[in-house]
């Protein structure tokens, strides 16, 4: 459990950094950035899987493809669900739609909590239920304020829960499955990076893009790898609620990049930030209780040892 929480927090912080880092990839457009992100992420991800001993998962999926070629259709659909989200993540801040994308990440945890409760029959603690209520208030206010939901928001909120649910169903919810998601999209990345535009000429004209792409690959592998592992170690409800840390950081990054939070939007963000605070408080209290129980057990063990002596 603690490992999953740590991985989820690491992923959210990395995504926040990555959202801000996209500004260093200019003058690349979102399609070129996406293409080079795929090229740069796979080597770092493969290296991490070699270090962690997870390369066998790539081979196991390949054997499943050989045994059941129909399985490749699911992998292609999984790749589409995953990589279109990665493209949108980059497209948003580059095209001034960062807050619309971040609103999707605000709504995403609620959908994941709903999936966890309805599909996996998971229970909410009192703190988690309170966090959900405040999050619902914030998201509902935003929907009421703008009178509609942007397509970026809807896609982020619905595609990711479907992706994680189907990964569990098809038993590809590990780094090997994620590696195949990126590998299968490489032909599209080649088209976007070389056929659709001359990104190599752009890199030659702006040498800083070389190190920017390397850092992009490292941050992507770290953030996405941590996120995928966290989804496997945590219950669906807790995984969804912990995801609230990410949109908070994405909204802050969008503000730093020049987008503004209007006066009416504060009633959206404040309840959601309060929901995150409730989860943090619950986590701290849980750790405190665990330490108390540990100390009590140690005390009882010492008393028992004294009686034996």
From TrEMBL:
<feature type="transmembrane region" description="Helical">
    <location>
        <begin position="34"/>
        <end position="51"/>
    </location>
</feature>
<dbReference type="Pfam" id="PF00892">
    <property type="entry name" value="EamA"/>
</dbReference>
<feature type="transmembrane region" description="Helical">
    <location>
        <begin position="102"/>
        <end position="120"/>
    </location>
</feature>
<feature type="transmembrane region" description="Helical">
    <location>
        <begin position="269"/>
        <end position="288"/>
    </location>
</feature>
<keyword id="KW-1003">Cell membrane</keyword>
<comment type="similarity">
    <text>Belongs to the EamA transporter family.</text>
</comment>
<feature type="transmembrane region" description="Helical">
    <location>
        <begin position="209"/>
        <end position="229"/>
    </location>
</feature>
<keyword id="KW-0812">Transmembrane</keyword>
<dbReference type="InterPro" id="IPR037185">
    <property type="entry name" value="EmrE-like"/>
</dbReference>
<keyword id="KW-1133">Transmembrane helix</keyword>
<feature type="transmembrane region" description="Helical">
    <location>
        <begin position="127"/>
        <end position="143"/>
    </location>
</feature>
<dbReference type="InterPro" id="IPR000620">
    <property type="entry name" value="EamA_dom"/>
</dbReference>
<feature type="domain" description="EamA">
    <location>
        <begin position="3"/>
        <end position="140"/>
    </location>
</feature>
<feature type="transmembrane region" description="Helical">
    <location>
        <begin position="236"/>
        <end position="257"/>
    </location>
</feature>
<dbReference type="InterPro" id="IPR004626">
    <property type="entry name" value="RarD"/>
</dbReference>
<feature type="transmembrane region" description="Helical">
    <location>
        <begin position="149"/>
        <end position="166"/>
    </location>
</feature>
<protein>
    <submittedName>
        <fullName>EamA family transporter RarD</fullName>
    </submittedName>
</protein>
<keyword id="KW-0813">Transport</keyword>
<feature type="transmembrane region" description="Helical">
    <location>
        <begin position="71"/>
        <end position="90"/>
    </location>
</feature>
<feature type="transmembrane region" description="Helical">
    <location>
        <begin position="178"/>
        <end position="197"/>
    </location>
</feature>
<keyword id="KW-0472">Membrane</keyword>
<feature type="transmembrane region" description="Helical">
    <location>
        <begin position="5"/>
        <end position="22"/>
    </location>
</feature>
């Amino acid at each position: 459990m603690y490992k999953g929480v740590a991985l989820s927090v690491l992923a959210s912080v990395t995504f926040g950094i990555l959202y801000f880092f996209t500004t260093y990839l200019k003058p690349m457009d979102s399609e070129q950035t996406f293409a080079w992100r795929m090229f740069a992420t796979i080597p770092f991800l493969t290296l991490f899987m070699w270090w962690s001993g997870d390369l066998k998962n790539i081979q196991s999926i390949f054997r499943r493809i050989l045994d059941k070629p129909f399985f490749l259709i699911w992998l292609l659909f999984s790749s589409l669900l995953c990589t279109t989200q990665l493209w949108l993540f980059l497209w948003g801040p580059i095209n001034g739609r960062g807050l619309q994308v971040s609103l999707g990440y605000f709504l995403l945890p609620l959908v994941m909590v709903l999936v966890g409760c309805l599909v996996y029959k998971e229970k909410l603690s009192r703190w988690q239920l309170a966090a959900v209520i405040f999050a619902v208030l914030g998201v509902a206010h935003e929907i009421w304020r703008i009178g509609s939901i942007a397509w970026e928001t809807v896609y982020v909120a619905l595609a990711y829960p479907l992706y994680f649910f189907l990964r569990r169903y098809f038993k590809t919810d590990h780094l090997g499955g994620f590696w195949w998601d990126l590998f299968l999209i490489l032909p599209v990345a080649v088209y976007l990076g070389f056929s659709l535009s001359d990104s190599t000429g752009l890199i030659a004209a702006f040498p800083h893009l070389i190190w920017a792409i390397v850092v992009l690959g490292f941050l992507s592998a770290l953030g996405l790898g941590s996120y995928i592992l966290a989804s496997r170690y945590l219950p669906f409800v807790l995984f969804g609620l912990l995801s609230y840390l990410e949109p908070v950081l994405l909204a802050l990054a969008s503000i730093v990049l020049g987008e503004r939070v209007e006066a009416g939007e504060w009633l959206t963000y404040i309840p959601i930030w309060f929901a995150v605070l409730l989860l943090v408080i619950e986590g701290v209290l849980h750790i405190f209780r665990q330490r108390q129980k540990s100390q009590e057990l140690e005390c009882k063990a010492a008393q028992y040892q004294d009686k034996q002596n």
